[in-house]
Specification:
The chain is α+β, with helices and mostly antiparallel strands. It has helices at residues 27-42, 124-137; strands at residues 47-49, 59-62, 70-81, 84-90, 93-102, 105-111, 117-123, 152-154. Strand 6 (105-111) and strand 7 (117-123) form a beta hairpin.
């Protein structure tokens, strides 16, 4: 496994591209997932999408506090409900947090690392992370959801113990 360099906005155009679907889950995808998990954990993140490590593929990894890490391939949101206000940071936009609205719950379908179809019903932080990572796969950043620039803050102005997505 290897720790991969994290792409940063605005320098890396891959962050603004729609990622390509994974057609075959082979050794290279397994290695990518392992490397992304190690990179996310080393960076103290709770989620990471392949474009954040410079790879334009629809792969994301996440790990909720006190839970096992997981990967989701070709994820798509099939249902959204409610609304929650969140303070969100991103490994690709270091030093800033934004106040924005996300869905209170989401249902996501995709494939696990073995290629099995999975469906995830998530609320709270898990819903936020899934929306954030799927946004990355579509070339969207959390700053695109801000109501105004007043909702973007330097990290030192907020609680920086919050983990990044």
């Amino acid at each position: 496994m290897a720790i991969l360099p994290i792409s940063h906005f605005p320098n890396d155009p891959v962050l603004r591209q729609k990622a390509k679907r994974v057609s075959r889950i082979g050794k290279s995808i397994q290695r990518l997932i392992d490397d992304m998990l190690e990179t996310m954990q080393q960076a103290n993140g709770v989620g990471l999408a392949a474009p954040q490590v410079g790879i334009s593929l629809r792969v994301a990894v996440l790990q909720m506090p006190d839970e096992e890490p997981m990967a989701i391939i070709n994820p798509e949101i099939v249902k959204r409900d409610g609304e929650q206000e969140v303070t969100e940071g991103c490994l690709s936009i270091p030093g800033y947090f934004g106040e924005l609205k996300r869905s209170a719950s989401v249902t996501v379908k995709g494939r696990d690392r073995q290629g099995k179809t999975i469906r995830i019903k998530a609320t709270d932080l898990m819903a936020e992370v899934l929306e954030h990572e799927i946004d990355h796969l579509d070339g969207t950043l959390y700053i695109d959801h801000l109501e105004s620039q007043d909702k973007l803050h330097k990290a030192e102005a907020l609680d920086t113990t919050k983990r990044l997505i």
